[in-house]
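Worked problem 6 (solution included).
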Amino acid sequence: MRHSAVVLFLLVVPLTVPARPLTSDAGAAPQEYHLRLYHTHTGERLDIVYRRGNDYIPKALAMLDYFLRDHRTGEVHHYDPRVFDILEQLTVAVGRPGTEIDIICGYRTPWSNQYLRAHTEGVAKNSLHMQAQAIDIRIPGVPTSRVRDIALSLHRGGVGYYPHSNFVHVDTGRVRQWCFECSVPQPAGD
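Solution. The predicted structure is:
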């Protein structure tokens, strides 16, 4: 009797333990981070996976660096890949993961930055565009005020709002915000 109770216990207990999954997280493919970009000055488009899990893809980063080159001079600079993470997070946060983002301005050489400062307003002398740490964008179909609000909620760096030019600046510098030509004075950007 004692022996049959042990056998019965051994037969029942394994059925009450949750089943082990057939695949574990360790064997799962890492998450892919994807961007679709349209450059408003060059007319070029880029559709790219730039990161898998925690690993940036060097060839993809090189393609992004070229895509975001200074469109006035053609000079390429290596971008801070955290900028791409901000862009990807923005598309997810607006409820449009993988949507195309319009690029207004990527990398700027010091010459291009000075040219813009001489011919327009709202361009910082030490802009993070010159370190490839900043990008000016819009997301078609999403008001730029909403893009600004979501970028601010990420707390990932600077956020500038340019409502009259219809774009938002995001960067990987210190967390701060500004609004160019807004009715309420805001701190100046970088």
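Discussion: Residues 31-179 form a domain with the Muramoyl-pentapeptide Carboxypeptidase; domain 2 fold (CATH 3.30.1380.10).
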